[in-house]
Amino acid sequence: MDSLPKKWVCRPGFFKASPHSPSCSKCPPHSYTLDEASTSCLCEEHYFRKESDPPTMACTRPPSAPRSAISNVNETSVFLEWIPPADTGGRKDVSYYIACKKCNSHSGLCEACGGHVRYLPQQTGLKNTSVMMVDLLAHTNYTFEIEAVNGVSDQNPGARQFVSVNVTTNQAAPSPVSSVKKGKITKNSISLSWQEPDRPNGIILEYEIKYFEKDQEMSYTIIKSKETTITADSLKPGSAYVFQIRARTAAGYGGFSRRFEFETSPVSVAASSDQSQIPIIVVSVTVGVILLAVVIGFLLSGSCCDGGCGWASSLRAVAYPSLTWRCGYSKAKQDPEEEKMHFHNGHIKLPGVRTYIDPHTYEDPNQAVHEFAKEIEVSCITIERVIGAGEFGEVCSGRLKLQGKHELPVAIKTLKVGYTEKQRRDFLGEASIMGQFDHPNIIHLEGVVTKNKSVMIVTEYMENGSLDTFLKKNDGQFTVIQLVGMLRGIASGMKYLSDMGYVHRDLAARNILINSNLVCKVSDFGLSRVLEDDPEAAYTTRGGKIPIRWTAPEAIAFRKFTSASDVWSYGIVMWEVMSYGERPYWEMTNQDVIKAVEEGYRLPSPMDCPAALYQLMLDCWQKDRNSRPKFDEIVSMLDKLIRNPSSLKTLVNASSRVSNLLVEHSPVGSSTYRSVGEWLEAIKMGRYTEIFMENGYSSMDAVAQVTIEDLRRLGVTLVGHQKKIMNSLQEVKVQLVNGMVPL
Ligand code: AMP
Q: What are phi and psi of 179, to 5 degrees?
């Protein structure tokens, strides 16, 4: 048989891959043939076939762009998450590629990020829909393009399909100093020089050099220097010394460098009389310790240092800042150039672990404010508009242009005219507190204007204002990861405050500010004081006001304000954030809140709240304050959740949400509302009365069983309405338990 009879030749639109195939096959989707007797089909325009694809497989195309990408910035790391593309192009081999661009905030020009960025797990061929970038530069604008690719993407001459995310990284501590060189060495001294860390992540304020004789680590010396060279002197001849260096920026200290070991020159025979030098380091440590003891005794004896105390006053500021109050309003400044201190057996707190100083302990409050805040010339400030009302006067937005610096957007708090001296002192008290803090999640103080009649506090500008209002305005608009990112920032700021020994006492979403990158910063330092050492101070709260709904029971009952009571408030802030600014305990009265909490009742889970987050809230609300998590534990827990977003997928489901209520043991069988109609009218949901009645929810007993699914079934599809009804139901139950009458 020379050729197939005509009837066996495939028609256009059909093909036969092998002459041995018994019949012709129809061209698979997105392919065609125009000729007879085709052995394969051609792909339609924009469709392709990978070499390894069988001819029977449909032609495919590159996927569309990934969707709904979100970012979460943690210092110099960025976590990205997205949803797979709507169109996979007909293929199963979709993976993702991340392009990273570093952008200049002024020119807007971007360049490729270069090799310093690490991608976890990797940059290309990502199978999961998330990735983490670490080792980014601090305070830098980045654009990340997430591109979906499949087996035919490389054949596509068209534009790449990607979704892009812009982020600005935060401040981070400097990377360790990596190279240290020895300079001149004598029998008693070693000179060193080093290079700035590879990633300073900001302006280096100073270096700290720690050194000790080899194998004598318990007795070490610390030198601080603004330069990248030092000379360690008074060393033993012919001995090995170990050096470690770390840098400090506004973000704090970076890690110490690895250990560098250098040896002093041996004692020459001619200089052997110099043996007297040998015990110098031991003596210097001992003398150092004795001197410290003398200074401490001196301070504790209540003597007052004047400005001439020199070394002693500088030491007090570094090692014992919390003791400053003993000296009234004497200065607590460090010697800026180079300080040298000796430490033995680690008994003394290292510099860098700063402690908050209560400005109220200054006899002269003006001194406190100038200790901690920069004075700004009023001519450097341009006021633009009023953005809020503070306790002491208007809050405005504007610009600050300091000489030699870029112009900055700022918020300006003003003190209303006709202020009393006490009001001026209280107003500036906030600046004295704020000025001691330096953390990316604490509102940053630029300075104060005090030399004028118009007294002002100038802070960084937070474009989105206070968190509670912002969340209410954007109800339901954020992903869980974004909300957790906000909470992480707040927890990190609170960890910093508690490490400094500062108790906030008024932590609430209204006192958190949020910027355009959704970075949350703790603000409002008006109420707060450290009360630990001063039982009397507990009763001197301004106006005796306590924000009941946010305050831990022990702080309400016996004014025990601690970082653990701040953790309770943090739990309430978590609840506010996850419920988009809902008022905690709704319209219950303060007295009823106190009673319910005392009786062991707690707020129910907000709607659609991940179970892990609600559990964390309940942990923050433990009655025993020692059982509550610490802020560092909260930060690490939130970090874990962010790194593993699938852990946030388990939500507190509707039924357990109800059973988690403070009303768990309550007889939900009667109601203080006389009818379903009255209840729905009261919450402005009267439009649903008919539908409730028609579906058998004609009594409050029946209504008490309603779940969110029931609401959807009844046609209550608007999320806002669902929330209103469910929240009101919980309130009704709370009120039932406490025998309260609804408004
Ligand atoms: P406060 O006196 O701190 O409670 O501020 C009153 C209001 O002014 C706040 O609720 C904010 O809406 C606004 N505000 C205060 N500080 C800032 C800021 N740094 N950036 C933007 N808005 C601010």
A: -125, 125
Of 134, 154, 149, 264, give the one whose Cα is nearest residue 201. 134
Where is 298: in which H helix or E strand? helix 280-300
The Cα–Cα gap between 565 and 623 comes to 10
List the one residue out of 392, 384, 386, 402 whose CA is nearest residue 426.
392
What per-residue confidence (pLDDT) applies to 687?
Answer: 84
Q: Output the pLDDT for position 540.
A: 29
Angle of the 365-372 helix axis to the 421-434 helix axis, nearest 10: 30
Q: Is 701 a catalytic residue?
A: no
CB half-sphere exposure, 294, CA atoms < 13 A: 10
Distance, in Å, from the CA atom of 477 to the CA atom of 580, rounded to the nearest integer, reads: 9
Q: How far is the CA of 630 from the centre of ligand 1 (A)?
A: 28
Of 696, 695, 701, 694, the C-alpha closest to 675 is: 701
397 CA to centre of ligand 1 in angstroms: 9
Higher pLDDT, residue 8 or 712: 712
pLDDT of residue 412: 96
Say how many Å lie between the CA of residue 471 and the centre of ligand 1. 15
Averaged pLDDT, 600-626? 93
Give the pLDDT score at 171: 67
Q: Is residue 40 classed as helix, strand or coil in its secondary structure?
A: coil
Tell me the pLDDT tens digit for each residue of 475-512: 999 999 999 999 999 999 999 999 999 999 999 999 99
User: What's the rounded mean pLDDT across residues 27-48?
Assistant: 93
| Structural domains in the chain plus CATH codes | 1-59 (2.10.50.10), 67-168 (2.60.40.10), 180-265 (2.60.40.10), 365-460 (3.30.200.20), 467-659 (1.10.510.10), 676-737 (1.10.150.50)
Question: CB under 8 Å to 722, separation ≥6 — which residues?
Answer: 607, 708, 711, 712, 716
Q: How far apart are CA 352 and CA 336, in angstroms?
A: 14
The protein residue with its alpha carbon nearest to ligand 1, atom 17, reads: 411
State both tokens at 597: 């909490």
pLDDT digits (tens, 9 = 90+) for 76-92: 888 888 889 999 999 99
Close Cβ partners of 318 (under 8 Å, ≥ 6 residues apart): 334, 339, 341, 351
Residue 424 has pLDDT above 60, yes or no: yes
Residue 264: CB within 6 Å of ligand 1? no
Task: Assign 3-state DSSP to the chain and report helix, strand, coil percentages, each to 5.
Answer: 30, 20, 45
Distance, CA of 303 to CA of 309 (rounded, Å)? 12
- Does residue 313 carry a pLDDT above 70? no
pLDDT in tens, 250-265: 667 788 899 999 999 9
Choose the catalytic residue: 358, 426, 468, 506.
506
Candidate of 462, 466, 504 to mutate for ligand 1, largest count of ligand atoms within 8 Å of Cβ: 466
Do the beta carbons of residue 55 and residue 84 sit within 8 Å? no
